[in-house]
Amino acid sequence: MILLKNFIVYIIHNIFLQLLILNEVKSQKFIKPDPRNGHTSTFIHDKLYILGGVTNRNNSSPKETFLYVDFSVSFNVNKINWHNLSSKNSIVPSHHLATTLAVNNTLFLFGGININSHEIMAPAYKFDIQSNLWKIQEINGIPGKQGAISIFDESTIYLFGGSPFTYNINDLFIIKSNDLTWKNANLTNSPFPRAQYGAVLLPNKYIIYMGGYNNGSIPLDQVYLYDIRNDFWTIKQTYGSIPSARYSFSRLDGNNIIIFGGQEDDKTIVENSLYVLNVNNFNWHIPKVTGKIPSSRTSHKAALIGKHMVITFGKGYNQEIEDDLLLLDISNNNEYAWTSYFALSPITNSKSLDQTDAQPDQPDTQSMQSNATNGSDVMTGLIIGAIINGILLIVGTFFLYKWYKNKRIRNNATLPNQINNQGQEIISIPENTELHT
Ligand SMILES: *[C@@H]1O[C@H](CO)[C@@H](O)[C@H](O)[C@H]1NC(C)=O
Ligand SMILES: *[C@@H]1O[C@H](CO)[C@@H](O)[C@H](O)[C@H]1NC(C)=O
Ligand SMILES: *[C@@H]1O[C@H](CO)[C@@H](O)[C@H](O)[C@H]1NC(C)=O
Ligand SMILES: *[C@@H]1O[C@H](CO)[C@@H](O)[C@H](O)[C@H]1NC(C)=O
Ligand SMILES: *[C@@H]1O[C@H](CO)[C@@H](O)[C@H](O)[C@H]1NC(C)=O
Q1: What's the Cα-to-Cα distance from 324 to each of 61, 190, 275, 427, 437, rounded to whole Å?
Q2: What is the dihedral of CA 378, 383, 388, 391, to 10 degrees?
Q3: Rounded CA gap, 278 and 259, in Å?
Q4: Residue 25 in 3-state DSSP?
Q5: Mutation pick for ligand 5 pocket among 168, 194, 210, 214 (CB with most ligand atoms within 8 Å)
């Protein structure tokens, strides 16, 4: 008797549990964000934040002005769990062509053009990823500008060139990140004025600047190195398969600089999109690639996340056919690979379902599915189990069990070593963007 009563309680409990979980699964919406260009992408603690930009069709603001993708879970690029943070974005005007960078837990935003007033945004903004709050940050004496790139190194921000007025400048502002006091760099041998160029911090503490737009797109047969330690510019000739003049491309750092996409003039997006510059001998080459080659893009963004170059949005592709986020696996220097799956190695996967559940202020898109390595089994199990309740409860329970078991195995696997095995600081490269008009 007691046994039967317990059994019934158990069954009822299970039904409720499943309805509850089903509800969560159902309420998980996969957002298809408006396409955009001239946005920023910033990688901070496992999350890639996408901010601003204009729609490709009519230069208005995309509905989702602030999004992130969680890189602490594996996912397929054709089913990305975009988290919509737009409602937290009440202070920053709709804008494009800004530059962002990450300082500890803070996302800094400089410049950009206000989409509604068409004015350059003068103050900086900062977003605290822990409190999810935006603040205005005044910087005195530095003009707001569009089409610049900011680089961060050891509590200093380097902000070169861009367009504060109707013309471009070539000043390099050196800004302390704690109080935003600043000075100008030595201008001898600096690049001529430009916007929408490429810039990357090299391991030897030089910043390399290349390409961009002035009164036309700027050739890549010359690149410029700024020596951070000695406040000194040098000009370098490049060799090999030099890419055509271009701007609004994206690039990555390391000993090789990879550039993707860009445009030659107002209309023409470059065809040969992928090039590599070896920064030891300044030779360009076209890398060998496998996988499905995506359309070239412009005004997109790239970030280096683990072994992937992660490209987001931009102009030049059809959102119905191609994905908003592209992954280029660059772990093998002799052959890169376009891939659609972001796989976490077991050791880097230190985020468990419990941790996710414990975060109360997560946006509405709790991603049960993407947290389960075995997502489809879980979904199938839960849905069948809940719809046909009593009868198929056992099926549901079985899948549930399997899911918990998988989860346990995963969690155990992460226990011995929680360190990011890439051993690598994951660097976000704020990008260049948008047509120059
Ligand atoms: C601009 O395009 C977006 C989609 O790209 C659309 O949602 C929006 O309604 C359009 N706005 C106008 C004013 O046409
Ligand atoms: C994202 O949030 C914004 C602001 O709350 C809203 O306007 C937009 O419709 C949301 N997008 C989706 C796809 O839910
Ligand atoms: C980042 O955080 C570390 C440790 O809390 C602190 O020492 C450092 O000053 C911070 N860096 C900046 C640029 O604020
Ligand atoms: C600026 O750099 C040049 C070399 O590129 C050097 O000759 C000059 O003295 C420097 N100027 C200042 C003010 O340090
Ligand atoms: C156009 O830009 C180039 C560099 O891109 C510069 O050398 C040249 O002086 C500029 N010409 C005009 C008319 O501004």
Answers
A1: 17, 35, 21, 20, 24
A2: 0
A3: 11
A4: helix
A5: 214
Question: What gap in Å lies between CA 331 and CA 308, rounded to an integer?
Answer: 8
SS3 221: coil
How buried is residue 108: exposed, middle or buried, by Cβ count under 10 Å (0-12/13-18/19+)?
Answer: buried
> How much of the chain, in percent, has pLDDT values that exceed 90?
58
What residue's CA is closest to ligand 5, atom 8?
A: 215
Dist. CA 253–CA 276, nearest whole Å: 10
pLDDT at 276 over 60: yes
| Number of alpha carbons in the 13 Å side-chain half-sphere of residue 403 | 23
3-class DSSP state for residue 233? Answer: strand
Q: Which atom of ligand 5 is nearest to the CA of 216?
A: 5
Distance 58 CA to ligand 1 centre (A): 6
What is the pLDDT at residue 4? 55
